[in-house]
Amino acid sequence: MKRLAGILLLWVLVLSSCERPGDPDNATLSLAPPLGLPVIPLSPDHPLPQARIELGRTLFMDRRLSHNNTLSCAMCHVPEQGFTSNELGTAVGIEGQTVRRNAPTVYNVAYVEQLFHDGREFSLENQVWGPLLAGNEMGNPSIGYVIEKIKVLPDYAGRFERAFAGRGPDVLTVGQALAAYQRTLVSANSRFDRWYYGKEQGALTTEEQAGFRLFSGKAGCSACHLAGEKHALLTDNRFHNTGVGYAYSLRLPRKHVVQLSPGKFIELEDKALDSFEQPLPDVGRYEVTLDPADSWAYRTPSLRNVALTSPYMHNGSLATLEDVVEFYDRGGIDNPQKDPLLTPLGLSATEKQALAAFLRSLTGDNVQKLVTEARAAQPADTPPAKDPASTYRRGY
């Protein structure tokens, strides 16, 4: 009996040593929420040790995670562009393939309850595999292919084991590492937060303060972009049909203003900009729930850092904040499932300008720090000497 107790005690000590509590690489990061945001929802199953965050950051920036070693997460979620892509209405995937939706920002993604524009995924750990495996995004043929590629890249040698108490790259640890990094992309303490929650009266201009009154009053924005007494996620984490998806699906004609040179613009119709690729069908949330009431409904994005994340809407069809304000002033686009919250607003030109000015006050004070940290991750760009599919041998 004493021998059994001794074995059990030794096993407990071995397990404890795996966590290496004195090791700064494995010290769990405590994320205090910045002014304006609530406590960050962290599961006890997914702590944030520093080694795991840094590993996830490297993976996020590594182009070798795509099938042909050319496309990283950061090439659609560009750090300098609000962790989205300002140049593209809808993302471009591997070998230039069309992706039918806009790349959403990953700022404050830790607070998002259902991920992707249609809410089809429920945790960051699982969500990361969607783009890795999508044929028109990063194009990998399987989970195993990604894992085996990471195993043979010398610059990842030992990093998973340090971050996960001896456990190497696998379907869980790859997802957990990428999720850990994304959970640190928390950004608030904006000028709005310092004015509204910090009671710093000079933090907003008179025009911006008027814009907030419109936001929470006449314009009705706060019905979906919530701002509470103690914090503001600026989203309801729900799904709404504004008519954008409906108009796109039915190919309702639109006009586009195209800049030809500085100060020189021309207006073109859709047919002048037709792509050789046929538009991909998109019925929004309906594809997840199969409920007709969810047709063309998409998740309400947070408005934090919204000045950095153009173009707007799930398909990137609105180029500027002024375009967005005009769209909602018109009451969206009528269709059978349009959200009843959308009605014409009748805003004056001065009110529209004030509302856009307020939206620009929502940029967090740490965006440059997060960009610098992202670019500090310098993954090598040397692909594996041989394709993992041709070199794999079972180790047991």
Structural notes for this entry:
The protein folds into 2 domains: 20-187 and 368-389, Orthogonal Bundle (Cytochrome Bc1 Complex, Chain D, domain 2), CATH 1.10.760; 191-363, Orthogonal Bundle (Cytochrome Bc1 Complex, Chain D, domain 2), CATH 1.10.760.10. It is mainly alpha-helical and 396 residues long. It has helices at 2-19, 50-61, 124-127, 129-133, 143-152, 159-163, 171-183, 191-196, 206-216, 244-249, 286-289, 321-329, 349-359, 367-376, 388-391; strands at residues 239-240, 255-261, 264-269, 298-299. The protein has 15 helices and 4 strands. The strands form 2 sheets. The protein has a two-stranded antiparallel ribbon with strand order 1-4. The radius of gyration is 23 Å and the shape is globular. Mean pLDDT is 89; it is low at 1-22. The longest helix has 18 residues, at 2-19.
SSE diagram, text form:
Elements lengths: L1 H18 L30 H12 L62 H4 L1 H5 L9 H10 L6 H5 L7 H13 L7 H6 L9 H11 L22 E2 L3 H6 L5 E7 L2 E6 L16 H4 L8 E2 L21 H9 L19 H11 L7 H10 L11 H4 L5
Antiparallel strand pairs: 1-4, 2-3
Summary keywords:
32% helix; Cytochrome Bc1 Complex, Chain D, domain 2; globular; 4 strands; 396 residues; two-stranded antiparallel ribbon; two-stranded antiparallel sheet; disordered N terminus
Outline:
The chain has 396 residues and is mainly α. It has helices spanning 2-19, 50-61, 124-127, 129-133, 143-152, 159-163, 171-183, 191-196, 206-216, 244-249, 286-289, 321-329, 349-359, 367-376, 388-391; strands at residues 239-240, 255-261, 264-269, 298-299.
